[in-house]
Automatic annotation (TrEMBL):
Annotated CDD domains: 6PGL (cd01400)
Classification of source organism: Eukaryota, Metazoa, Chordata, Craniata, Vertebrata
Name listed for the protein in its UniProt record: Hexose-6-phosphate dehydrogenase (glucose 1-dehydrogenase)
Annotated ranges, domain Glucosamine/galactosamine-6-phosphate isomerase: 479-701
PROSITE patterns xref list: G6P_DEHYDROGENASE
GO molecular function per UniProt: 6-phosphogluconolactonase activity; glucose-6-phosphate dehydrogenase activity; NADP binding
Cited NCBIfam families: pgl (TIGR01198)
UniProt domain Glucose-6-phosphate dehydrogenase C-terminal: residue ranges: 222-402
Gene3D superfamilies: 3.40.50.1360, Dihydrodipicolinate Reductase, domain 2 (3.30.360.10), NAD(P)-binding Rossmann-like Domain (3.40.50.720)
This protein's pathway: Carbohydrate degradation; pentose phosphate pathway
The keyword Ion transport is annotated on this UniProt entry: no
């Protein structure tokens, strides 16, 4: 658990990089580890212990090691301090006392302190490494430099490493850079430029050691494993607020020269706490092992973080700090430092999923307790009538403890309805009530997941059947599960399309069947890439878009007004032109076709959602309407046997060019239709739905059990 360095020796020192470099690094060889800032606070508290634990694990793995502690102080004065630090390292409980004594003696023998101040000092270090390699007679695997020093020293040290300490060809070089990376945005850019002149990008590892904590590393896996439970409540409708807190009881004596340059915000808030914030709020990656996808999802949160105003942050400073600054920095008594040792920041994310949800980041020195945690506090809609100490009236929360404390409360994730009550005091909490909007209900049985143990069963697969219908893929389930699967598949298609080309074209039909889907997308799919989505109409009734019969009116009311989709990405069919409805001379169908050809690559929608009428029509392509005569036109005016008779519709030419076409059929009333369709041959003029046959895409039927089984 001792920070990210536990992984560095394993993944970097032993396995090395990628490709040919990785193949070279995996050969047994000598690894030189150099900690610059070897007697500093981070090295003393974490780094040497971490490197020792990894040495214990790796000592018999084929590599040999040497450990150098470097600093500005001369060896004569710093060596006793250095050895006091390294002698304090300890073995884990799994290591026997006898083996611990042996490997610790070896580790101490391999460790030495060297002054690293001038270029000559680094040149002497390189000579010492070369001498050791010659004595051992084995090839060099690589050199790892861990810069546990203030960021202003990075560029100078990197330049010295580049000019004097690069290994021979075939061995790798790794330079680990701690936070904070610069003083502000401009200095960070300058530092990146300076480092780039000395080191290759693949040689630099900018790390935040807080991400190496066991609980922090398990936030994403916890969210993934409990996705089925968390997805419905991980949003603005259920989350009251998010708290990310790091409290310390210690002061900063002995660290003033460093700390006074940065303060609590730069020291822990803009790195440790904001990293935790991204892990809690980022979109879950499709591939957990893809560092690139995880990074992009984190950056998406940062890009949507609203600017912090002056009224959204408070800072403070413990009283003794002023005296410490004057003493350690030789300042006069009238010197005043404005560096904060305490800060609380209120942040908001400009995403539909977290709209209005306050995210509070708090950290400080010299506080009442040493503790670090992240807490997701959920809204409580329960009123306890008899037992105010009921579990239902306690805070509903998930708490991730980062250390120095036990989880006090489990996380109550979901409440279910009760059976009967025994009466009197024996009712206990069975009469607790849940108030949600205009609804009230009983609340009793709860599902509890302990976040402290980071355990949770993986979400079960949907209870669905995947078979064939009319030689095409079929997904069938109860209506709620079916809609859930369809919504998930549409989002998966959207994300894939955006990754591939930056845009997703979705064509949606009217009618009553898609309404449950629209609600699902609006209320549960907050990470849907609406900003990169264009929504098109499959068909439209020739009525003004303000009337209830309008398909666009229904689409707008049930979906579009609830999601953040750019105005210009919405494409209603132009059924009303020149103050008239669907007049051939107005060429509304041609206008829509031109818009499709202009914006949709190859006129191939990524996803088309269709329904099926009782008479076998789909879109607004009806029986006996000679749909096969529409030719290569993508959009056409059609006639319906029921009012309103005039329609505008995509044609088979447009539908069958799509990458994916979904046919959604729901309800017992459609059972007879499904039975007939299962038996008949293709006849698009009589049964238009049988004309849906994507040229190069795929067709999937989504049929609920009521329609399938009756």
């Amino acid at each position: 658990m001792f920070v990210a360095v536990l992984l560095l020796l394993v993944t970097l020192s032993v396995q090395g990089g990628n490709g040919e470099e990785k193949a070279e690094a995996q050969r047994p060889g000598h690894v030189s580890v150099v900690i610059v800032g070897a007697t500093g606070d981070l090295a003393k508290r974490y780094l040497w212990q971490g490197f020792f634990e990894q040495y214990v694990n790796q000592v018999s793995g084929g590599n040999t090691f040497s450990f150098y502690g470097g600093g500005l102080s001369p060896a004569s004065t710093a060596t006793p301090v250095f050895f006091e630090i390294v002698q304090a390292v300890s073995c884990s409980k799994e290591t026997s006392p006898d083996r611990c004594a042996v490997v610790k003696e070896q580790f101490l023998r391999l460790a030495e302190y060297r002054q690293l101040k001038t270029l000559e000092d680094y040149q002497e270090l390189a000579k010492n490494i070369e001498k050791e390699l010659q004595q051992e007679g084995i090839p060099e695997a690589g050199r790892l430099f861990y810069l546990s020093v203030p960021a202003f020293a990075y560029a100078d040290i990197a330049d010295k490493i580049n000019n004097s300490c690069r290994p021979a060809s075939g061995a790798w070089l790794r330079v680990v850079l701690e936070k904070p990376f610069g003083h502000d945005f401009r200095s960070a850019q300058l530092l990146a430029s300076q480092l780039g002149s000395s080191l290759k990008d693949e040689e630099m590892f900018r790390i935040d050691h807080y991400l190496g904590k066991q609980v922090v590393t398990n936030i994403l896996p916890f969210r993934v494993e409990n996705k089925k439970y968390l997805d419905p409540i991980w949003n603005k409708h259920h989350i009251e607020r998010v708290e990310i807190v790091l409290k310390e009881t210690l002061d900063v004596k002995g660290r003033i020269p460093f700390y006074d340059q940065y303060g609590v915000i730069r020291d822990v808030m803009q790195n440790h706490l904001t990293e935790v914030m991204t892990l809690l709020t980022m979109r879950l990656p499709v591939n957990m092992s893809s560092t690139e996808e995880v990074l992009q999802n984190k950056l998406q949160i940062f890009s949507n973080l609203l600017p912090i105003g002056k009224n959204q942050a408070v800072t403070g400073q413990y009283q003794a700090y002023k005296t410490s600054v004057q003493q350690e920095m030789n300042k006069t008594n009238d010197h005043v430092s404005l560096t904060p040792t305490f800060a609380a920041v209120l942040a908001h994310i400009d995403e539909a999923q977290y709209e209005g949800v306050p995210i509070i980041l708090i950290s400080g020195k010299m506080l009442d307790e040493r503790v670090g945690y992240a807490r997701i506090l959920f809204k409580n809609t329960v009123f306890c009538l008899q037992n105010h100490n009921s579990v239902h009236c306690k805070p509903k929360q998930i708490v991730f403890h980062f250390g120095h404390g036990q989880l006090k409360y489990p996380a109550i994730l979901q409440a279910l309805s009760p059976a009967s009550t025994p009466g009197g005091a024996d009712n206990g909490d069975m009469l607790d009530l849940r108030v949600k909007g205009k609804d009230i209900s009983y609340s009793s049985e709860v599902v509890i997941i302990g976040a402290d143990q980071m355990s949770g069963k993986s979400a079960k697969d949907f209870q669905v059947m995947q078979e064939k219908f009319r030689s095409a893929a079929m997904v069938s389930a109860w209506s709620e599960d079916l809609v859930e699967r369809l919504a998930a598949n549409i989002q998966a298609s959207a994300e894939a399309a955006v990754r591939e080309g930056g845009v997703f074209h979705l064509a949606l039909s009217g009618g009553s069947s898609p309404l449950a889907l629209f609600h699902r997308l609006a209320l549960h799919h907050f990470s849907f890439p609406w900003r990169d989505t264009h929504v098109w109409m499959v068909d439209e009734r020739c009525v003004p878009p303000t009337e209830l019969e309008s398909n666009f009116h229904s689409l707008h009311d049930h979906l579009l007004q609830h999601v953040r989709i750019p105005y210009f990405n919405i494409h209603p069919m132009p059924v009303q032109l020149n103050q008239r409805l669907c007049v051939e001379e107005d060429a509304g169908a041609l206008l829509y076709e031109k818009e499709v050809r202009k914006l949709v690559n190859g006129s191939s929608f990524h996803f088309v959602l269709l329904g099926v009428g009782y008479d076998g029509h789909t879109a607004s392509l009806f029986p006996d309407s000679k749909v096969s005569e529409l030719g290569d036109h993508l959009v056409a005016l059609t006639e319906s046997p029921v009012k309103p008779h005039q329609r505008m519709s995509l044609t088979f030419s447009a539908i069958n060019q799509a990458r994916t076409v979904a046919l959604l059929v729901m309800g017992k009333g459609k059972h007879e239709l499904i039975t007939q369709l299962s038996r008949m041959k293709d006849n698009p003029d009589k049964w238009p739905v049988t004309g849906v046959k994507p040229d190069n895409g795929k067709l999937v039927w989504y049929i609920d059990y009521d329609a399938l089984l009756g």
